[in-house]
Amino acid sequence: MDSRPTGARRTPGAIRVEWGQREPSLTGLGPFVDAPARMRGGILQYTGCIDWAMIAAVILGPILAIQVEKLLEERRERKRRKLDLFRTLMSTRAAGLFPVHVDALNRIDIEFQHDTKVTEAWKGYSDHLNSKALTGDAWEDKRKDVLTDLLHVMAKSLGYHFDKVHIKRAAYYPQGYGDAEQDNLMIRKGFVKVISGESALPMNVTSFPVDETFAKQQAELWNLMIRSYKGEFPLAVRIVTPDEPKGRT
Predict the structure, then answer these.
(1) Distance between CA 38 and CA 24 in Å, rounded?
(2) Where are the domains of the chain?
(3) For 44-174, where are the alpha helices, taking DSSP H only?
(4) Which end of the chain, N or C, is less packed with Cβ atoms under 10 Å?
(5) What is the pLDDT of residues 65-110, one digit of tens each?
(6) Based on the number of CB atoms within 10 Å of its own CB, is 182 exposed (0-12), middle (13-18) or buried (19 or more)?
């Protein structure tokens, strides 16, 4: 007589082997396997088809995991580019003519194309940069205010908590940088005026190259001329007539 139990208590996540029938069954493997089984050569074998859901999970699981990882990586890369752009603008906000600052401004439409608040703030700043309604200090003061608004909106979008006063006044820009930038601007404008003919290049001649021998002879000549004009000695004059032999004085 087979003394094996006719059943086993099911526990969560455990396998239950049911005996007492010609072909025992395997249960307890969850929703994927519930197939008939049999003993052959002391080895428990199960027959039937594995649930298609398990096949799909085995095949599609790694593919879906790779796709999810790609999506997460792309999201991290977009965030990294936004942060890089924002840091560039913040570090150069006091130097609006720096090439890296201008390059970062022109990348806003690309990196923040789905952020309406940022793109609208950038349009406002761009409009002011291309506007000629104001001039001089009034234009520059307005530019700083509009740039501060843009950086403030970008900071909020990226999770930074900067107030407008901090953004506008906390930038450090050495006076020497400002003087050099202003000097370069004046040089470029002055050179353009000279090239275009609007202005002449000022020149002040302080000396010429001098040949000492020639200078000495020139001084003697001037001295003789002055003495002759004063009547200190007469000048030798020779009058030559057509009939007179040459060489007679």
Answers:
(1) 6
(2) 16-50, 78-175
(3) 52-91, 99-106, 108-111, 116-129, 136-157, 164-169
(4) N
(5) 888 888 888 888 999 999 999 999 999 998 888 899 999 999 999 9
(6) exposed
